[in-house]
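Re-running the complex after MR caught last week's input typo. The corrected sequence lines follow. Everything else is unchanged.
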Amino acid sequence: MRVLKFGGSSLATRERIEGVLQIILRAERERGPVAVVVSAFGGVTDELIAISKMASQDNQEYKARLTGLQNRHIDVLRELVPALEQSAALVTLKMWFNDLEDVLHGVFLIGELSPRCLDYTMSFGELFSACIISHALKAKGADCDFLDSRELVRADETYGCAKVLFEETYKRIRDSFDTEKGLRVITGFIASTLGNETVTLGRGGSDYTASIFAAGLHAEEVEIWTDVDGLMTADPQKVPKAFSLRNLSY
Ligand code: ASP
Ligand code: MG
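Corrected-run output:
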């Protein structure tokens, strides 16, 4: 078993997503079983945070932004999945958007956004992306299922940066993968508390989710796919002169 993780910028446009689908299908075909962990599509977590803050600050514009986010996801689904196979995913996406709308309406009325509530609103990005990617893989003939990592990854109540309860989590991961075969597309970044509250594992946490699944499954490898070539000397967004290293020892 290998765990492959794809981040938001690899999932920012339809073309990039198509590329990711090909990588996943080829990996399975050529090198055996994989589990896939995905982040939210590029920019979606930031947008969910912005929308949640707007709602809490009495700014009605949050509604239009939410509609924009919904349209973006439905458009991607329509582009990736043939019309006859879209309905199940559309129903799920619409249900989630309704839940999100209800919570944001509550935030708007009360004028307050608690860390717990923000974790809940942020969690939708990974639900949307994993749902769409799993349906797109299914449409390409893969025996594939969506997996909500909140069912398996248990953590404490440190909202925004929850600490994983490893013993419980590894047990759940192993049990789940023992009984269910086939390719799974797993939501990165999100987990749940023992009381079933949604929490997140810190920004950029999908890499961490991939590592947790890899460790729990004693995977041969975890592959963190990204869209820059190789390893750079620094974060190019912070250091414009950063360049790719030609060689690197362990
Ligand atoms: N979507 C989350 C974030 O933007 C997690 C991740 O991308 O790894 O922080
Ligand atoms: Mg990242």
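None of the earlier attempt is carried over here. The helical segments are 14-31, 44-56, 62-80, 87-110, 115-122, 124-139, 166-179, 206-216. The pocket of aspartic acid (ligand 1) is lined by residues 7-8, 39-40, 45, 125, 188-189, 203-206 (CB under 6 Å).
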